Please model this.
Amino acid sequence: MSNDRLKVVDAFDLDDELRSLLRPGEMVRDEQGRRHRLPRYFYEIAAHEEATNLRLTPHFGMNEFVFVDLREHPRLQAFPRYIPCAVRVLAFYLEQFRAAAGASVHIAVNGGYRSPAHKMALNSTPHMWGTAADIYRIGTNILKTKDLIERFNDVAEDLSDDVTTLPYGHVTGKNADDHVHIDLGYITVVPREISEDRMEMPQESRPRFAFEERRRRERRAVIPAGSAGED
Ligand SMILES: [Zn+2]
Model:
C-alpha cells in the first residue's frame, strides 16, 4: 500500500477479536457517570513504516498517535493498527497549539490513542476517541513543574473553547503533574468515504480510502492557472 492514502475501516467489519477490543458504538462511562459512545470508524495503518511516513499536519505524524507500550492489548500493539478518524481533528488543533507555543511539541508513547482495552483506560477518556494528547516536552521544556504546565495549559485553552486540559495536580485521570493533557472531548468523525445506510452489519468489503492532505494539494497544483478545474 502506498503512503499517500489512508484506509478507512468500519470497526464492525473487523474480526471478532478486534471488535471486542475496539468496542465500536459501545457506551462507556466517564468519572461522573455520563455515558459516551465509542468511535466506529478508524484509519487502518498497515505497517510501522507507514505510521512513520504519514503526516497528519506539517509537524505531526501518525506515528506520534499510535505508539503504545505493553499496557496496550498485544493485538493492538501489532500492525495493522487502528486509530479513530477524529485523530486528524486533534492533529489540526495540535498544529495550532505548536504555533501558539512557538516551539516543537512532543507526544509521548501512550500519549495519543489508547483503546478501551488499554490498562490505563479505567473510565472513558478522550484518548479512546483519538482526540487527546499527552505532551511531555515543548521545545526544551520538560513539563514537570506547576508553572510550566499551567502556562501551556493556558496557551492550549486560549486556542478554542473546544480545547480542555487537565489542571496541575497528582490524581491520575483528574490532574497531571508530568505532562500537559490536551483534549477535544468526545468527537467522533464519520469520514466522507463512509455511507451510513446500515446500523451494525458488515458493509461491502471493498476498501475505502481517504486522501491525505498533501496529495490533495498536489492534485490542486496540477490544475493550470485560469482553468476552471474539475474537482
Ligand atoms: Zn491524557
About this structure: The mean pLDDT is 87. The chain has seven helices and 13 strands.
